[in-house]
Design goal:
The complex is a heterodimer. Chain A is of the alpha+beta class. Chain A contains three helices and eleven strands. Chain A has two domains: about 30 residues; about 210 residues, Calycin beta-barrel core domain (Lipocalin), CATH 2.40.128. In chain A, about 15% of the residues lie in helices and about 25% in strands. Chain A starts with a helix and ends in a 17-residue tail after the last strand. Chain B has one domain. Chain B has five helices and 14 strands. In chain B, strands 3, 4, 6, 7, 8, 9, 10, 11, 12 and 13 form a ten-stranded antiparallel β-sheet that branches. A two-stranded antiparallel sheet of chain B has the order 1-2. Classes of the chains: A alpha+beta, B alpha+beta.
Chain lengths: ~260, ~300
Protein backbone atom coordinates (compact mmCIF):
# COMPACT_ATOMS: atom_id res chain seq x y z
CA UNK A 1 0.00 0.00 0.00
CA UNK A 2 2.77 2.34 1.00
CA UNK A 3 4.53 1.66 -2.28
CA UNK A 4 1.36 2.34 -4.25
CA UNK A 5 0.89 5.69 -2.59
CA UNK A 6 4.50 6.58 -3.28
CA UNK A 7 4.10 5.61 -6.92
CA UNK A 8 0.93 7.64 -7.19
CA UNK A 9 2.59 10.69 -5.69
CA UNK A 10 5.45 10.28 -8.15
CA UNK A 11 3.05 10.09 -11.07
CA UNK A 12 1.19 13.18 -9.96
CA UNK A 13 4.44 15.03 -9.67
CA UNK A 14 5.55 13.90 -13.10
CA UNK A 15 2.25 14.95 -14.61
CA UNK A 16 2.62 18.39 -13.05
CA UNK A 17 6.11 18.70 -14.39
CA UNK A 18 4.93 17.71 -17.85
CA UNK A 19 2.15 20.27 -17.74
CA UNK A 20 4.54 22.93 -16.57
CA UNK A 21 7.04 22.20 -19.29
CA UNK A 22 4.42 22.25 -22.00
CA UNK A 23 2.83 25.43 -20.65
CA UNK A 24 6.14 27.17 -20.36
CA UNK A 25 7.57 26.13 -23.65
CA UNK A 26 6.33 29.25 -25.35
CA UNK A 27 7.19 31.56 -22.49
CA UNK A 28 10.83 30.77 -21.92
CA UNK A 29 12.88 33.72 -20.88
CA UNK A 30 15.45 36.00 -22.26
CA UNK A 31 18.88 34.49 -22.65
CA UNK A 32 20.27 31.43 -24.31
CA UNK A 33 23.78 32.66 -24.69
CA UNK A 34 26.78 30.41 -24.40
CA UNK A 35 29.75 31.23 -22.26
CA UNK A 36 31.54 34.09 -23.89
CA UNK A 37 35.26 34.41 -23.54
CA UNK A 38 36.45 35.62 -20.21
CA UNK A 39 39.96 36.93 -20.12
CA UNK A 40 41.18 37.05 -16.59
CA UNK A 41 43.24 39.93 -15.32
CA UNK A 42 44.88 40.38 -11.96
CA UNK A 43 43.96 43.34 -9.81
CA UNK A 44 43.92 43.44 -6.06
CA UNK A 45 44.62 39.71 -6.03
CA UNK A 46 41.22 39.00 -7.61
CA UNK A 47 40.78 37.37 -10.99
CA UNK A 48 38.36 39.38 -13.10
CA UNK A 49 36.55 38.72 -16.36
CA UNK A 50 36.94 41.03 -19.36
CA UNK A 51 33.78 42.87 -18.26
CA UNK A 52 35.30 43.55 -14.84
CA UNK A 53 33.31 41.06 -12.76
CA UNK A 54 34.98 38.75 -10.23
CA UNK A 55 35.89 35.58 -12.11
CA UNK A 56 34.43 32.61 -10.24
CA UNK A 57 35.56 30.10 -12.89
CA UNK A 58 37.11 27.04 -11.34
CA UNK A 59 36.48 24.07 -9.09
CA UNK A 60 35.10 24.77 -5.61
CA UNK A 61 33.89 22.95 -2.55
CA UNK A 62 32.48 23.76 0.85
CA UNK A 63 34.57 22.36 3.71
CA UNK A 64 32.05 21.82 6.44
CA UNK A 65 29.57 19.23 7.67
CA UNK A 66 26.41 21.16 6.80
CA UNK A 67 25.19 18.41 4.47
CA UNK A 68 24.64 16.32 7.63
CA UNK A 69 23.43 19.12 9.88
CA UNK A 70 23.34 22.85 9.21
CA UNK A 71 23.21 23.56 12.97
CA UNK A 72 25.84 22.96 15.66
CA UNK A 73 26.25 19.23 16.18
CA UNK A 74 28.49 16.61 17.72
CA UNK A 75 29.91 13.69 15.76
CA UNK A 76 28.06 10.44 15.11
CA UNK A 77 29.43 7.36 13.39
CA UNK A 78 30.10 8.46 9.80
CA UNK A 79 29.12 12.06 10.53
CA UNK A 80 31.80 14.64 11.38
CA UNK A 81 31.07 17.13 14.15
CA UNK A 82 30.57 20.67 13.05
CA UNK A 83 29.84 24.22 13.96
CA UNK A 84 26.60 25.23 12.30
CA UNK A 85 26.28 27.44 9.24
CA UNK A 86 22.98 29.02 10.37
CA UNK A 87 23.46 32.56 11.63
CA UNK A 88 22.55 32.55 15.32
CA UNK A 89 22.20 28.75 15.08
CA UNK A 90 18.41 29.10 15.38
CA UNK A 91 15.94 28.09 12.68
CA UNK A 92 12.61 29.88 13.28
CA UNK A 93 10.18 27.01 12.66
CA UNK A 94 6.44 27.44 13.07
CA UNK A 95 5.30 25.17 15.94
CA UNK A 96 3.74 22.50 13.71
CA UNK A 97 6.75 22.58 11.38
CA UNK A 98 9.10 22.03 14.32
CA UNK A 99 7.24 18.80 15.13
CA UNK A 100 7.70 17.72 11.50
CA UNK A 101 11.41 18.50 11.69
CA UNK A 102 11.75 16.41 14.84
CA UNK A 103 9.97 13.51 13.16
CA UNK A 104 12.24 13.88 10.11
CA UNK A 105 15.28 13.74 12.40
CA UNK A 106 14.09 10.50 13.98
CA UNK A 107 13.62 8.86 10.56
CA UNK A 108 16.51 10.58 8.81
CA UNK A 109 18.44 7.49 7.71
CA UNK A 110 15.64 6.46 5.36
CA UNK A 111 13.44 9.55 5.09
CA UNK A 112 16.07 12.00 3.82
CA UNK A 113 15.29 12.34 0.09
CA UNK A 114 19.02 12.49 -0.57
CA UNK A 115 19.29 8.81 0.43
CA UNK A 116 17.17 8.12 -2.68
CA UNK A 117 19.78 9.92 -4.80
CA UNK A 118 17.33 12.65 -5.79
CA UNK A 119 18.59 16.11 -6.61
CA UNK A 120 19.20 17.68 -3.19
CA UNK A 121 17.82 21.19 -3.81
CA UNK A 122 19.44 24.57 -3.26
CA UNK A 123 21.31 25.53 -1.15
CA UNK A 124 22.06 21.93 -0.05
CA UNK A 125 23.74 21.04 -3.32
CA UNK A 126 26.26 23.82 -2.65
CA UNK A 127 27.53 22.15 0.54
CA UNK A 128 27.34 18.47 -0.39
CA UNK A 129 30.77 16.89 0.22
CA UNK A 130 31.65 16.88 -3.51
CA UNK A 131 33.34 19.49 -5.71
CA UNK A 132 31.56 21.58 -8.32
CA UNK A 133 32.79 23.64 -11.25
CA UNK A 134 31.68 27.18 -12.05
CA UNK A 135 31.79 28.41 -15.66
CA UNK A 136 31.16 32.07 -16.27
CA UNK A 137 29.97 34.20 -19.15
CA UNK A 138 28.37 37.66 -19.15
CA UNK A 139 24.77 36.44 -19.42
CA UNK A 140 25.01 32.95 -17.98
CA UNK A 141 26.90 31.40 -15.10
CA UNK A 142 26.68 27.63 -14.86
CA UNK A 143 27.51 25.38 -11.95
CA UNK A 144 28.35 21.79 -12.86
CA UNK A 145 28.28 19.37 -9.95
CA UNK A 146 30.15 16.12 -9.40
CA UNK A 147 27.14 14.94 -7.37
CA UNK A 148 24.80 13.17 -9.86
CA UNK A 149 26.06 15.43 -12.67
CA UNK A 150 23.60 18.09 -11.59
CA UNK A 151 23.62 21.41 -13.43
CA UNK A 152 22.49 24.85 -12.32
CA UNK A 153 22.18 27.55 -14.96
CA UNK A 154 22.10 31.05 -13.49
CA UNK A 155 20.79 33.50 -16.08
CA UNK A 156 22.00 37.05 -15.48
CA UNK A 157 19.61 39.99 -15.81
CA UNK A 158 16.49 38.02 -16.69
CA UNK A 159 13.18 37.29 -14.98
CA UNK A 160 11.73 34.22 -13.32
CA UNK A 161 9.23 32.12 -15.18
CA UNK A 162 5.70 33.18 -14.28
CA UNK A 163 3.41 30.98 -12.21
CA UNK A 164 4.72 28.11 -10.15
CA UNK A 165 6.91 25.25 -11.35
CA UNK A 166 8.21 22.37 -9.26
CA UNK A 167 11.92 22.31 -10.02
CA UNK A 168 14.32 20.33 -7.84
CA UNK A 169 17.00 23.02 -8.03
CA UNK A 170 14.68 25.98 -8.62
CA UNK A 171 14.89 28.71 -11.23
CA UNK A 172 18.02 30.84 -10.70
CA UNK A 173 18.19 34.48 -11.86
CA UNK A 174 21.32 36.48 -11.07
CA UNK A 175 22.50 40.06 -10.94
CA UNK A 176 25.63 41.81 -9.71
CA UNK A 177 25.77 44.14 -6.70
CA UNK A 178 29.34 45.43 -6.91
CA UNK A 179 31.56 42.37 -6.61
CA UNK A 180 28.75 40.24 -5.20
CA UNK A 181 26.78 37.87 -7.40
CA UNK A 182 23.21 37.81 -6.09
CA UNK A 183 21.04 34.90 -7.22
CA UNK A 184 17.29 34.81 -6.66
CA UNK A 185 15.79 31.32 -6.75
CA UNK A 186 12.10 30.39 -6.91
CA UNK A 187 10.03 27.51 -8.25
CA UNK A 188 11.03 24.74 -5.85
CA UNK A 189 9.23 21.51 -5.07
CA UNK A 190 8.70 20.40 -1.45
CA UNK A 191 10.70 17.19 -1.86
CA UNK A 192 14.15 18.20 -0.61
CA UNK A 193 15.68 18.78 2.81
CA UNK A 194 18.40 21.22 3.83
CA UNK A 195 20.43 18.47 5.50
CA UNK A 196 20.41 14.89 6.77
CA UNK A 197 19.08 16.19 10.12
CA UNK A 198 15.61 16.73 8.70
CA UNK A 199 15.54 20.49 8.25
CA UNK A 200 12.97 21.03 5.52
CA UNK A 201 10.93 23.52 3.53
CA UNK A 202 7.76 23.74 1.48
CA UNK A 203 7.21 24.56 -2.19
CA UNK A 204 6.91 28.21 -1.13
CA UNK A 205 10.68 28.28 -0.61
CA UNK A 206 12.48 31.37 -1.85
CA UNK A 207 16.28 31.47 -1.63
CA UNK A 208 18.53 34.47 -2.15
CA UNK A 209 22.18 33.54 -2.58
CA UNK A 210 25.08 35.95 -2.33
CA UNK A 211 28.53 35.00 -3.68
CA UNK A 212 31.21 37.46 -2.53
CA UNK A 213 34.90 36.89 -3.26
CA UNK A 214 37.06 37.34 -0.16
CA UNK A 215 40.27 36.57 -2.07
CA UNK A 216 41.30 34.76 -5.26
CA UNK A 217 40.54 31.35 -3.78
CA UNK A 218 37.64 31.94 -1.39
CA UNK A 219 33.99 32.89 -1.79
CA UNK A 220 31.75 33.97 1.07
CA UNK A 221 28.53 32.10 0.32
CA UNK A 222 25.31 33.23 1.96
CA UNK A 223 21.82 31.86 1.46
CA UNK A 224 18.77 33.63 2.86
CA UNK A 225 15.82 31.27 3.31
CA UNK A 226 12.23 32.49 3.10
CA UNK A 227 9.29 30.12 3.43
CA UNK A 228 6.27 31.53 5.29
CA UNK A 229 4.56 28.12 5.32
CA UNK A 230 7.36 26.67 7.45
CA UNK A 231 9.26 29.53 9.12
CA UNK A 232 8.11 32.58 11.08
CA UNK A 233 10.78 34.81 9.53
CA UNK A 234 13.62 34.68 6.97
CA UNK A 235 16.89 33.19 8.18
CA UNK A 236 20.36 32.86 6.77
CA UNK A 237 23.18 30.39 6.22
CA UNK A 238 26.74 31.58 5.72
CA UNK A 239 29.88 29.63 4.88
CA UNK A 240 33.06 29.72 2.80
CA UNK A 241 33.62 27.99 -0.53
CA UNK A 242 37.21 26.98 -1.22
CA UNK A 243 38.91 26.77 -4.60
CA UNK A 244 40.51 23.43 -5.47
CA UNK A 245 44.18 24.24 -6.12
CA UNK A 246 45.41 20.77 -7.07
CA UNK A 247 47.19 21.02 -10.41
CA UNK A 248 45.19 18.21 -11.98
CA UNK A 249 41.89 19.02 -10.27
CA UNK A 250 38.92 18.06 -12.40
CA UNK A 251 35.42 16.83 -11.68
CA UNK A 252 34.97 13.09 -11.50
CA UNK A 253 31.61 11.41 -10.95
CA UNK A 254 29.32 10.50 -8.10
CA UNK A 255 26.52 8.77 -10.00
CA UNK A 256 24.50 8.02 -6.91
CA UNK A 257 21.76 5.98 -8.54
CA UNK A 258 24.17 3.92 -10.67
CA UNK A 259 25.54 2.08 -7.65
CA UNK A 260 24.15 -1.45 -7.41
CA UNK B 1 8.29 23.19 -29.17
CA UNK B 2 8.85 20.00 -31.07
CA UNK B 3 11.67 18.79 -28.85
CA UNK B 4 10.22 19.87 -25.54
CA UNK B 5 8.54 16.56 -24.99
CA UNK B 6 8.55 14.97 -21.62
CA UNK B 7 11.67 12.93 -21.70
CA UNK B 8 10.53 10.01 -19.60
CA UNK B 9 7.75 9.45 -22.09
CA UNK B 10 10.21 9.76 -24.92
CA UNK B 11 12.53 7.22 -23.36
CA UNK B 12 9.68 4.79 -22.83
CA UNK B 13 8.52 5.30 -26.38
CA UNK B 14 12.01 4.73 -27.71
CA UNK B 15 12.56 1.61 -25.65
CA UNK B 16 9.19 0.06 -26.32
CA UNK B 17 9.34 1.24 -29.90
CA UNK B 18 12.66 -0.50 -30.38
CA UNK B 19 11.16 -3.69 -29.02
CA UNK B 20 8.15 -3.48 -31.32
CA UNK B 21 10.35 -2.68 -34.23
CA UNK B 22 12.67 -5.63 -33.82
CA UNK B 23 9.71 -7.96 -33.62
CA UNK B 24 8.01 -6.36 -36.58
CA UNK B 25 8.74 -7.90 -40.00
CA UNK B 26 8.41 -4.63 -41.86
CA UNK B 27 10.04 -2.40 -39.32
CA UNK B 28 7.06 -0.11 -39.79
CA UNK B 29 6.89 0.67 -36.08
CA UNK B 30 10.44 1.93 -35.93
CA UNK B 31 10.62 5.23 -34.11
CA UNK B 32 14.26 5.77 -34.95
CA UNK B 33 15.10 9.35 -35.71
CA UNK B 34 17.03 8.23 -38.72
CA UNK B 35 13.66 7.46 -40.26
CA UNK B 36 13.00 10.14 -42.86
CA UNK B 37 9.51 10.68 -44.21
CA UNK B 38 10.64 13.18 -46.82
CA UNK B 39 14.08 13.95 -48.10
CA UNK B 40 15.34 16.87 -46.06
CA UNK B 41 18.39 19.00 -46.63
CA UNK B 42 20.83 20.10 -43.96
CA UNK B 43 23.15 22.95 -44.91
CA UNK B 44 22.35 22.25 -48.56
CA UNK B 45 23.39 18.61 -48.17
CA UNK B 46 21.22 15.48 -48.20
CA UNK B 47 20.27 14.42 -44.70
CA UNK B 48 21.16 10.76 -45.00
CA UNK B 49 24.36 10.13 -43.07
CA UNK B 50 26.66 8.91 -45.82
CA UNK B 51 25.62 11.62 -48.28
CA UNK B 52 25.70 14.34 -45.63
CA UNK B 53 29.11 13.20 -44.45
CA UNK B 54 30.78 13.60 -47.84
CA UNK B 55 28.89 16.72 -48.86
CA UNK B 56 29.33 18.59 -45.55
CA UNK B 57 33.05 17.89 -45.29
CA UNK B 58 33.51 19.20 -48.84
CA UNK B 59 31.57 22.37 -47.99
CA UNK B 60 33.49 22.88 -44.76
CA UNK B 61 36.72 23.24 -46.72
CA UNK B 62 35.61 26.63 -48.05
CA UNK B 63 33.74 27.89 -44.98
CA UNK B 64 35.54 30.39 -42.74
CA UNK B 65 33.88 29.93 -39.33
CA UNK B 66 33.15 32.76 -36.89
CA UNK B 67 35.92 33.10 -34.28
CA UNK B 68 36.14 33.60 -30.55
CA UNK B 69 38.30 36.56 -29.42
CA UNK B 70 41.30 34.23 -29.12
CA UNK B 71 40.87 32.98 -32.68
CA UNK B 72 39.28 29.57 -32.22
CA UNK B 73 36.34 28.60 -34.41
CA UNK B 74 33.28 29.65 -32.39
CA UNK B 75 31.08 26.60 -31.88
CA UNK B 76 29.15 28.13 -29.00
CA UNK B 77 25.42 27.92 -28.73
CA UNK B 78 22.57 25.48 -28.43
CA UNK B 79 22.55 22.58 -30.86
CA UNK B 80 19.95 20.00 -31.84
CA UNK B 81 20.31 16.80 -33.81
CA UNK B 82 17.08 15.93 -35.63
CA UNK B 83 19.12 13.93 -38.14
CA UNK B 84 20.24 11.53 -35.41
CA UNK B 85 16.85 11.59 -33.73
CA UNK B 86 17.95 10.63 -30.25
CA UNK B 87 19.81 7.58 -31.52
CA UNK B 88 17.60 4.58 -31.92
CA UNK B 89 19.25 1.88 -33.98
CA UNK B 90 22.50 3.40 -35.25
CA UNK B 91 22.64 0.93 -38.11
CA UNK B 92 19.19 1.92 -39.30
CA UNK B 93 16.66 -0.62 -40.44
CA UNK B 94 19.14 -2.49 -42.52
CA UNK B 95 20.96 -3.72 -39.43
CA UNK B 96 18.18 -5.98 -38.19
CA UNK B 97 15.93 -6.23 -41.21
CA UNK B 98 17.84 -6.84 -44.40
CA UNK B 99 14.61 -7.37 -46.35
CA UNK B 100 13.27 -3.93 -45.62
CA UNK B 101 11.89 -2.10 -48.61
CA UNK B 102 12.80 1.28 -47.19
CA UNK B 103 16.11 2.86 -48.10
CA UNK B 104 19.01 2.23 -45.78
CA UNK B 105 19.29 4.87 -43.12
CA UNK B 106 22.27 3.86 -41.05
CA UNK B 107 24.28 6.61 -39.35
CA UNK B 108 27.44 4.53 -39.87
CA UNK B 109 29.52 6.06 -42.65
CA UNK B 110 32.52 3.77 -42.29
CA UNK B 111 32.41 0.85 -43.10
CA UNK B 112 30.54 1.79 -46.27
CA UNK B 113 27.96 -0.98 -45.78
CA UNK B 114 26.60 0.97 -42.79
CA UNK B 115 27.13 -1.91 -40.38
CA UNK B 116 29.13 -1.78 -37.17
CA UNK B 117 32.02 -4.28 -37.59
CA UNK B 118 31.07 -6.23 -34.49
CA UNK B 119 32.82 -9.45 -33.58
CA UNK B 120 30.30 -12.25 -34.29
CA UNK B 121 29.44 -12.74 -30.58
CA UNK B 122 28.90 -9.01 -30.22
CA UNK B 123 26.55 -8.91 -33.21
CA UNK B 124 24.41 -11.52 -31.45
CA UNK B 125 24.62 -9.61 -28.21
CA UNK B 126 23.30 -6.43 -29.77
CA UNK B 127 20.11 -8.28 -30.72
CA UNK B 128 19.85 -9.87 -27.26
CA UNK B 129 20.27 -6.48 -25.66
CA UNK B 130 17.22 -5.11 -27.39
CA UNK B 131 15.17 -8.23 -26.77
CA UNK B 132 15.99 -8.84 -23.13
CA UNK B 133 17.72 -5.89 -21.47
CA UNK B 134 16.66 -2.43 -20.32
CA UNK B 135 18.51 0.38 -22.05
CA UNK B 136 20.51 1.97 -19.17
CA UNK B 137 19.39 5.39 -20.39
CA UNK B 138 15.79 4.38 -19.67
CA UNK B 139 16.60 4.49 -15.99
CA UNK B 140 18.60 7.66 -16.35
CA UNK B 141 22.15 6.30 -16.24
CA UNK B 142 24.54 8.73 -17.89
CA UNK B 143 25.20 8.50 -21.60
CA UNK B 144 28.44 9.23 -23.38
CA UNK B 145 29.49 10.33 -26.86
CA UNK B 146 28.16 9.95 -29.49
CA UNK B 147 24.75 9.44 -27.87
CA UNK B 148 25.21 12.44 -25.59
CA UNK B 149 25.45 14.52 -28.77
CA UNK B 150 22.24 13.10 -30.23
CA UNK B 151 19.79 12.93 -27.34
CA UNK B 152 16.52 14.87 -27.61
CA UNK B 153 16.40 18.64 -27.21
CA UNK B 154 19.53 20.74 -26.97
CA UNK B 155 23.14 20.57 -25.93
CA UNK B 156 25.03 23.76 -25.17
CA UNK B 157 28.64 24.25 -26.19
CA UNK B 158 30.53 26.99 -24.34
CA UNK B 159 34.22 27.77 -24.91
CA UNK B 160 36.50 29.10 -22.20
CA UNK B 161 40.26 29.62 -22.03
CA UNK B 162 41.78 26.16 -21.67
CA UNK B 163 38.55 24.14 -21.76
CA UNK B 164 35.08 23.91 -23.14
CA UNK B 165 31.85 22.51 -21.79
CA UNK B 166 29.06 20.55 -23.46
CA UNK B 167 25.92 20.50 -21.33
CA UNK B 168 23.07 18.25 -22.35
CA UNK B 169 19.48 19.16 -21.70
CA UNK B 170 17.83 15.74 -21.70
CA UNK B 171 18.82 12.67 -19.72
CA UNK B 172 19.20 14.63 -16.48
CA UNK B 173 21.83 16.98 -17.90
CA UNK B 174 24.87 14.80 -18.40
CA UNK B 175 27.66 17.30 -19.07
CA UNK B 176 31.24 17.09 -20.21
CA UNK B 177 34.15 19.35 -19.39
CA UNK B 178 36.66 19.01 -22.24
CA UNK B 179 40.13 20.18 -21.28
CA UNK B 180 42.03 21.82 -24.16
CA UNK B 181 45.24 22.56 -22.22
CA UNK B 182 47.17 19.44 -23.15
CA UNK B 183 46.86 17.73 -19.78
CA UNK B 184 47.05 13.92 -19.86
CA UNK B 185 44.05 11.65 -19.42
CA UNK B 186 43.07 10.44 -15.96
CA UNK B 187 44.88 7.36 -14.62
CA UNK B 188 43.56 4.17 -16.25
CA UNK B 189 41.90 2.88 -13.09
CA UNK B 190 39.51 5.82 -12.94
CA UNK B 191 36.47 4.87 -15.02
CA UNK B 192 33.65 7.30 -15.65
CA UNK B 193 30.19 6.83 -17.18
CA UNK B 194 30.81 9.80 -19.46
CA UNK B 195 34.51 9.10 -19.85
CA UNK B 196 37.40 11.53 -19.66
CA UNK B 197 37.56 14.00 -22.57
CA UNK B 198 40.53 15.95 -23.95
CA UNK B 199 40.26 18.29 -26.91
CA UNK B 200 42.45 20.00 -29.48
CA UNK B 201 42.07 21.96 -32.71
CA UNK B 202 43.12 20.49 -36.04
CA UNK B 203 42.66 23.46 -38.35
CA UNK B 204 39.02 24.44 -37.98
CA UNK B 205 38.04 21.06 -36.57
CA UNK B 206 37.52 20.45 -32.86
CA UNK B 207 38.86 16.97 -32.05
CA UNK B 208 37.78 15.40 -28.74
CA UNK B 209 39.26 12.14 -27.49
CA UNK B 210 37.44 10.30 -24.74
CA UNK B 211 38.76 7.33 -22.74
CA UNK B 212 38.39 5.95 -19.17
CA UNK B 213 34.85 4.72 -19.86
CA UNK B 214 32.92 2.31 -17.64
CA UNK B 215 31.58 0.46 -20.70
CA UNK B 216 28.21 0.07 -18.97
CA UNK B 217 26.12 2.30 -21.24
CA UNK B 218 24.69 1.87 -24.75
CA UNK B 219 25.25 3.95 -27.87
CA UNK B 220 21.53 4.05 -28.56
CA UNK B 221 18.26 2.33 -27.74
CA UNK B 222 19.02 -0.18 -30.51
CA UNK B 223 21.27 -2.13 -28.14
CA UNK B 224 24.59 -1.04 -29.64
CA UNK B 225 27.14 -1.38 -26.86
CA UNK B 226 30.81 -0.99 -26.02
CA UNK B 227 33.46 -2.02 -23.51
CA UNK B 228 35.69 -0.13 -21.11
CA UNK B 229 38.44 -0.34 -23.76
CA UNK B 230 36.54 2.06 -26.04
CA UNK B 231 38.32 5.15 -27.30
CA UNK B 232 36.04 7.75 -28.84
CA UNK B 233 37.36 10.36 -31.26
CA UNK B 234 34.84 13.06 -32.13
CA UNK B 235 35.37 15.64 -34.85
CA UNK B 236 33.26 18.81 -34.97
CA UNK B 237 33.58 21.02 -38.05
CA UNK B 238 31.39 24.01 -38.91
CA UNK B 239 29.79 23.68 -42.35
CA UNK B 240 27.94 26.99 -42.22
CA UNK B 241 26.98 29.43 -39.45
CA UNK B 242 24.21 27.16 -38.20
CA UNK B 243 25.47 23.64 -38.91
CA UNK B 244 28.26 21.50 -37.49
CA UNK B 245 29.38 18.30 -39.16
CA UNK B 246 29.75 15.79 -36.35
CA UNK B 247 31.61 12.50 -36.69
CA UNK B 248 32.56 10.01 -34.01
CA UNK B 249 35.07 7.21 -34.55
CA UNK B 250 34.60 4.33 -32.14
CA UNK B 251 37.65 2.17 -31.52
CA UNK B 252 36.86 -0.78 -29.27
CA UNK B 253 38.96 -3.84 -30.13
CA UNK B 254 37.24 -5.95 -27.47
CA UNK B 255 33.90 -5.58 -29.25
CA UNK B 256 34.54 -4.80 -32.92
CA UNK B 257 37.09 -5.93 -35.48
CA UNK B 258 38.10 -2.42 -36.52
CA UNK B 259 37.30 1.24 -35.72
CA UNK B 260 34.06 2.54 -37.24
CA UNK B 261 32.63 6.00 -37.75
CA UNK B 262 29.17 7.50 -37.54
CA UNK B 263 28.17 11.00 -38.62
CA UNK B 264 25.29 13.42 -38.39
CA UNK B 265 24.60 17.15 -38.24
CA UNK B 266 24.35 19.44 -35.24
CA UNK B 267 21.82 22.12 -36.16
CA UNK B 268 21.65 25.42 -34.28
CA UNK B 269 18.59 26.04 -32.13
CA UNK B 270 17.52 29.48 -33.31
CA UNK B 271 14.54 29.88 -31.01
CA UNK B 272 14.73 33.33 -29.44
CA UNK B 273 15.14 33.23 -25.69
CA UNK B 274 15.46 29.45 -25.48
CA UNK B 275 16.83 28.32 -22.12
CA UNK B 276 17.75 24.79 -21.13
CA UNK B 277 15.29 23.73 -18.46
CA UNK B 278 15.88 21.41 -15.52
CA UNK B 279 15.09 17.80 -16.17
CA UNK B 280 14.83 15.67 -13.07
CA UNK B 281 15.27 12.25 -14.65
CA UNK B 282 15.92 9.58 -12.04
CA UNK B 283 13.61 11.42 -9.65
CA UNK B 284 10.60 10.59 -11.78
CA UNK B 285 11.74 7.33 -13.39
CA UNK B 286 8.72 5.08 -13.54
CA UNK B 287 9.59 3.11 -16.66
CA UNK B 288 12.15 0.69 -15.31
CA UNK B 289 9.87 -1.11 -12.87
CA UNK B 290 7.31 -1.66 -15.62
CA UNK B 291 9.97 -3.00 -18.00
CA UNK B 292 11.36 -5.39 -15.38
CA UNK B 293 7.83 -6.69 -14.84
CA UNK B 294 7.66 -7.60 -18.52
CA UNK B 295 10.73 -9.80 -18.13
CA UNK B 296 13.46 -7.35 -19.17
CA UNK B 297 16.75 -7.54 -17.29
CA UNK B 298 19.06 -4.79 -16.09
CA UNK B 299 22.07 -4.36 -18.38
CA UNK B 300 25.37 -4.91 -16.58
CA UNK B 301 27.89 -4.54 -19.41
CA UNK B 302 29.21 -6.65 -22.32
CA UNK B 303 28.86 -10.40 -21.89
CA UNK B 304 32.23 -11.46 -23.28
CA UNK B 305 32.55 -15.03 -24.62
CA UNK B 306 34.37 -17.31 -22.20
Amino acid sequence: MELDRATLRKRIRSACLLAAVLCLGSLSGLHATGGAQTTASQSGGLRRTSDGKPDFSGIWQAMNSAAWNIQDHVAEKGVPAGMGVVEGNEIPYRPEALLKKQENFKNRETADPETKCWLPGVPRIMYMPYPFQITQGPTQISILFEYVHAVRNIFIGSSHYPGHIDFWLGDSRGHWEGDTLVVDIEHFNDQTWFDRAGNFHSDALHVIERYTPTGPDHIRYEATIEDPKVFTRPWKMSMLLYRHKEERAQLLEYECFAFP
Amino acid sequence: MRHRLFDGAVRTAITLGAVLWVSSPTGAQAPTGAQMKKPREVAGCPSTAAAFHACALAKAKTFNPPRTPDGQPDLQGLWETPMAGGLGNIEGRRGADAESQTPPNSLVVDPANGLIPYHPWAREQKAENVDHYVDPYTHCLPITAPRIMASPRTRQIAQYPGYLTIVNESGGHPFRVVYMDGRPHLPADIKLWRGDSRGRWEGNTLVIETTNLTGLAWFGSGGDFFSDALKITERLTMVDANTIHYAATLDDPKVSSRPWTMAFALERNKEKGYEQMEEGCFESDRDTADLLLTGFKMYTGPRFPK
